[in-house]
Amino acid sequence: QVQLWESGGGLVQAGGSLRLSCGASGRIFSIKAMGWYRQAPGKQRELVATATIDGSTNYADSVKGRFTISRDIAKNTVYLQMNSLKPEDTGVYYCNAKLSLSSTSPDYNYWGQGTQVTVSS
């Protein structure tokens, strides 16, 4: 019933920018945090950036100073502004949301299907 949608991926040249968007839809009681993870070919999935309901953010060391995560709480949407992109940023980017479906249910992590980001040299 809960679904995450992602958009904004594409092909860009090194040094360029992309803006990813992710929204959660369905009957959601509350969202505790939303964020982005990525998986490069032949590598494990890794954290890129997260944002919690209280405004705290967390970034991977490799993207600090280049990426910015932001959120629109009213629209259950999170964004990732990616600047100064490098070829090593290439991968599938997955949206993640930590949410609950009712006041009595536990929090659970939901995942989007992923959007491809390719940075050429």
Overall description:
By secondary structure, the chain is mainly β. Helix content is 0%, strand content 57%. The chain contains no helices and eleven strands. It has strands spanning 3-7, 10-13, 18-25, 30-39, 46-52, 57-59, 67-72, 77-82, 91-100, 108-111, 115-120. Strands 2, 4, 5, 6, 9, 10 and 11 form a seven-stranded mixed sheet that branches. The N and C termini lie far apart (40 Å). 29% of the residues are buried. The mean pLDDT is 95.
Features:
seven-stranded mixed β-sheet; single chain; 11 strands; mainly beta
* Extended strand count: 11
- The helix count comes to 0
Radius of gyration from the CA trace?
A: 14 Å
Poorly predicted segments: none
What shape does the CA trace take?
A: elongated
How far the N terminus sits from the C terminus, by CA atoms, comes to 40 Å
Helix content: under 10%
User: Can you write the helix and strand succession as a string?
Assistant: EEEEEEEEEEE
Report strand %: over 45%
Question: What's this entry about, in short?
Answer:
This protein has 121 residues and is mostly beta strands. It is built from no helices and 11 strands. Strand 9 (91-100) and strand 10 (108-111) form a beta hairpin.
Topology:
Elements: E1 3-7, E2 10-13, E3 18-25, E4 30-39, E5 46-52, E6 57-59, E7 67-72, E8 77-82, E9 91-100, E10 108-111, E11 115-120
Parallel strand pairs: 2-11
Antiparallel strand pairs: 1-3, 3-8, 4-5, 4-9, 5-6, 7-8, 9-10, 9-11
